[in-house]
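Hello again,

I reread your note about wanting to compare the complex against the isolated chains. To keep things tidy I'm splitting this into two emails, and this first one only covers the full assembly. Below are the input lines as submitted, including protein chains and any nucleic acid or small-molecule components. They are followed by the predicted structure of everything together. The single-chain runs will come separately.
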Amino acid sequence: MNQSLKDLQDILFNRVRLLSKQLDDVTDPAQAQAILDEMREFNHRVTMVGGLLFREQSAELEAKVEAVSKAKRRVDEAIKNIQELNDSLQVITDFLALVDEAIDLAKLL
Amino acid sequence: MKRHVTNSLCVWSLLAVWALPCASLSGCKTVDSLSVTQFKQGLSTVYSNSRSVLLECNQSAREVQLDRVEKLPNIKESDVASALDAESLSRWNRAFEVLVLYSSALETLAGTNHGKAVEASLQLVGDQIIKLNPPRDSDESTSDELTRAISHIGGLIVQAAAGREALKLARDADPNVRAVLFHMANMIGADYTKPGVRKTMWSNWTVVADEQRVEFLSAGDRKRQVAAAYAKALEGRQTGDSALGALHKALIDLADLHTAMAQGRTASASEIITVLGQELSFAKTLLESAHPAKSDGGEQ
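Full-complex prediction:
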């Protein structure tokens, strides 16, 4: 994760919390509104930086998920191998049936 | 008697083909297919709930954006950009989809179908061998029983081999599955002070709550109503954060569940699935109802 973005979000987030704390002591509506407006500006940037971090992390996630896709392909391969074993038994059965028919035919000659 | 011996030889030769792998398989651990199924169910539950919780987060952030935009002289794309963009959410969903596909494949491999299919095929092979060299009437039942027994053993061997292979593959994949799930948990955040969605949303919900505090200063005879909206906004902040916290925990629980499964241990996810489903569903409902305090006199 991008450390600079993380640090920046920390700074912005702490500013939002500090401004919120300042509201505890304010009784003047105009002053309170000014603080809230400032909070909204800082919060907007917290959200934007958070979005950038999430985006960056999701790109990293994509790379990690590829390893699971490879694991899935290995499982598919194992399933295929077992199915092939079953298919080969089917071939033996079919072959024996053919031999059976040949013997029956020979008996008629 | 000669025919019976011939039949038996054929059948026992067939058995010998299976006996070797059987010996090598004895005592081997296999993956617990129920654990695989529960892991898959857990993934599906967390996936569907995470989608709605993250979309709800976007909705909450949008309300705060609009409150800010009302006071701007002009508007830009970045003023109303989604907190969590569509492409990133799509990657999030894709990660779950790949994990579900992987667990489905593992479930198929560890399931009982392969053993049953091979048992049926062996039975057919045995029947054909007997048909080629029919036993005397008195030996018929013995040959049939042998064929059935060998087919059954063959099925069991294949089943054990599949289970052992599933365990090996799950063990190999475990570090990667854990890496994915822990990374996703980190994207959410261990708590609201750590980097992640929880921090962003805590900030947004704080602004929502503080809007009520400012409103309170000039509320006149509506102070009680505004105070109620403030309390509701604080509750919404807590509930939203708890929902994300539950999601964070669920992702780590899923990683641990996979590890248990990959070690051949029976791990029950039913409790995780139930608790998580209830917790996230409850949080989602509260988040919807606590939407940025537009009710109860929030913006009158």
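For quick reference: Residues 250 and 272 of chain B are 7 Å apart (CA to CA).

B.
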